[in-house]
Amino acid sequence: MDVELIRKLAGNLNKVVPAEITAADTAQTQDAAISQENLSRLRGYVQLALRQQLKPEELGKSRDPLVRSRLRSIVMRALVELDIPIGSGAAAALVEELADDLLGFGPIEQFFYDPEVTEIKVNRYDLIRVEKHGVERVAEGVRFRDEEHCRDILERMLAPTGRRIDISSPRVNARLFDGSRLIAHISPVAVEGTTITIRRFRQDMTVENLLKRGVLTREVLEFLKAAVKARMNIVICGGTSSGKTTLLNCIASFIPDEESIVTIEDPAELQLQHRNVRRLEAKPPNQEGKGAVTQRDLMVDALRMAPKRIIIGECRAGEAFDMLQAMNTGHLGSMTTIHANSARHGTRRLVNMVQMAGLDLPYEAIIEQIADAVDIFIHVLKDRSGRRRLDHIVEVTGVERTPEGVLNVGLNPLWQYDRSSGKLVWVAEKFTRERIFREEGGWTC
Locate the Bacterial type II secretion system protein E domain: which residues (predicted)? Predict the structure, then answer.
């Protein structure tokens, strides 16, 4: 900035906020320092300047200090050239607001700086809810300007991901810059306008943090570590937002570095603390409805990539059959997650998903496949207080028939949450895999 411009800017910044007014008056004055008309003029000026002065790749870097600095210079020059008087405090806040609005994710940008926020839900452009510490509340005073603003921000979120949403494809799943999972809907499937749900994954959720938060105990942790080292095939089940992915990330850290892993996801969200990982992500079809790459396709590819272990972030459909096949054909120690209300329900969900593969396998053959493939089911949940914890762990003992003659997967409860102590306790009278846990997993409990 030249000297004359700086002098003029200084004059503008002092027009509204004289030194003698009180702090309360200052806040009120600064809040009202810019009218909607001036704000609209300023936004248009800055938006045009950003397009002219920033490269396309820089427009998506709202958190880059250099980009923020350049935006600040543009805003200050705009205030002078448009002759908009404003308080100095309001000017600083305005820079942040415009950065969020023109480069970032608008009113919800602030929540990406808070590591305690785990979910962001846009129910409507004017109704935003946020989950923090397991409790969901309305984000008071936070809203998009209108439906068009909400759609603009959604498009900006999707731009780097290569995914799209429009009238012909009114729903989308995507992975954001920080690994968060986004799912969005627009009209006509979203009745009241654009809806956006963002699941955020804590970057600091290590095994030690799980212990501190009471998700599990040291004894259970040693058991799970032994299960991984003994190359048990593990299925983690639970409801939505119960902590399945977090637990999978943590226990996968026990896999020895010399063992190669292939992960398959849709969209990718695992953040394995492992040095020998090849990550695969499913791809939706293009605008012509072609070019889709499903998790089933990637599962076939993974079998040809010679991994020691395969991890599917979440089994939802026919890929469950391929996962069981992999577990049964040498890829011991593989893992996945599924949605289910208990370990028992998890076995039934697996049956349903295998049936979705369209192979017309008899029910009893599917049950035998599951019993042969899976060693351990771990069930996690989020209780009424919002706390996420392990509820029970069972081992698969083969197949069994109910009194009605129906074939089921045999389950032996090993650990069960005890409400009186608030911990998982060992409940098994016998443990069929005890020897392999001790000899190959190093379990000493």
Answer: 104-376
